[in-house]
Amino acid sequence: MIEIGEVTVPAATVSRLPYYLRALRDLLRDGVTTTSSSALAERSGVGSAQLRKDLSYLGSFGTRGVGYEVETLASSISTALGLGSEHRLAIVGVGNLGNALANYSGYAARGFRLVALIDADPDVVGRRAAGLEVEHSDRLEEILAARGVSMVILATPGAAAQAVAERIVECGVREILSFSPVALQLPDDVVVRSVDVAGELQILAFHAAARHAQEGATVDGRTAPAATAR
Ligand SMILES: NC(=O)c1ccc[n+]([C@@H]2O[C@H](COP(=O)([O-])OP(=O)(O)OC[C@H]3O[C@@H](n4cnc5c(N)ncnc54)[C@H](O)[C@@H]3O)[C@@H](O)[C@H]2O)c1
């Protein structure tokens, strides 16, 4: 459970809030002012019962027969996610992945400002991406402090990740999005979200194997196995 202001929200709910917010912002862009829970759920890619339960943690926003006011709900979710103020972001490790992430154009629209690119390789330092120059990691502490960085995307090789993460945390950063393939050991008050594309693909492979097993069993006329995990 995660405390947001005066309410406590399950971590799984927090992880779905960005999807609701994106769907609501799409609706606002299309000039839609109210939406039903089922329409919003469909746009967000979750079930409507799940959506209603998630939103109930933030307070009661829906009106029976009318639905949700899009702007009010977007604003409430945005506040709950702490997006009222801009988060200043740095990318550490500007190789293939870091460079691609630097060139993502969606940060600003979602409350983030990329303010620093940092790398250890002298051949990478000085290159430009997203209007920023890559700076040397020898100056990491100085750069994070001077730019007011509050969140870091870590995209170094695994071997460097722990040491770099410790330096980042020493600077007071408490939120790290890590693409490095290692389990970082950091103080309890540091929140690390790890992204593992290959791991996600392995989960898809599990689902594919389960489906094939089920199809095979059906074709054979045997009872289908219970491997239907979601
Ligand atoms: N999680 C995922 O889904 C996923 C997907 C692709 C890559 N990765 C991982 O992301 C990381 C980056 O991948 P890549 O393909 O961009 O690799 P890359 O080798 O192209 O880039 C890594 C960069 O980190 C820099 N670096 C090394 N040590 C550093 C340090 N101490 N401080 C700052 N920068 C440092 C290197 O100079 C290099 O520019 C790797 O760990 C890779 O395994 C994860």
Automatic annotation (TrEMBL):
Keywords: Cytoplasm, DNA-binding, NAD, Repressor, Transcription, Transcription regulation. InterPro entries: CoA-bd, NAD(P)-bd_dom_sf, Rex_actinobacterial-type, Rex_DNA-bd_C_dom, Tscrpt_rep_Rex, WH-like_DNA-bd_sf, WH_DNA-bd_sf. Residues 19-58 bind DNA. Pfam families: CoA_binding (PF02629), Put_DNA-bind_N (PF06971). Residues 82-183 form the CoA-binding domain. NAD(+) binds at G93, V94, G95, N96, L97, G98. It comes from the Bacteria. It is found in: Cytoplasm. The keyword Secreted does not apply. Gene3D superfamilies: NAD(P)-binding Rossmann-like Domain, Winged helix-like DNA-binding domain superfamily/Winged helix DNA-binding domain. The keyword Transport does not apply. Belongs to the transcriptional regulatory Rex family. Homodimer. Modulates transcription in response to changes in cellular NADH/NAD(+) redox state. This is Redox-sensing transcriptional repressor Rex. The gene is rex.
